[in-house]
Amino acid sequence: MEREFLRRLITTIKCGVCGQPYEGENVTILGQRDDLWFLNVSCSACGSQALVAAVIKEGELPQLITDLTERERAKFRDLEVVGADEVLDVHLFLKSFDGDFAQLFAEE
Ligand SMILES: [Zn+2]
Known about the structure:
With 108 residues, the chain is α+β, with helices and mostly antiparallel strands. 35% of the residues lie in helices and 22% in strands. The protein has a 4-stranded antiparallel beta sheet with strand order 1-2-3-4, with helices on both faces. A hairpin with a 7-residue loop joins strand 3 (49-55) and strand 4 (63-65). The site of zinc ion (ZN) has 8 residues, from loops.
């Protein structure tokens, strides 16, 4: 159920390289920690891959956080659906994250 939801969610964002919307079938769910889901998505148009963090809380609008451009980040802030701090936290986390998801989710 949640997987289907995440697939639909990912189609609302566009490839950071070529600007094509992502397709739901190109999403791989890497893992979940609390409200945070980690997804890997590949663009069907240009083949580039992106790491996406999705914050899904019950009763709140879901948030997708990827390696956003400054302009996109400003747009997110304007929406005020999530605190800029939270976006920044995840953004910094993704920047420093070494990609070892097995280790990350083993810490539970
Ligand atoms: Zn692309």
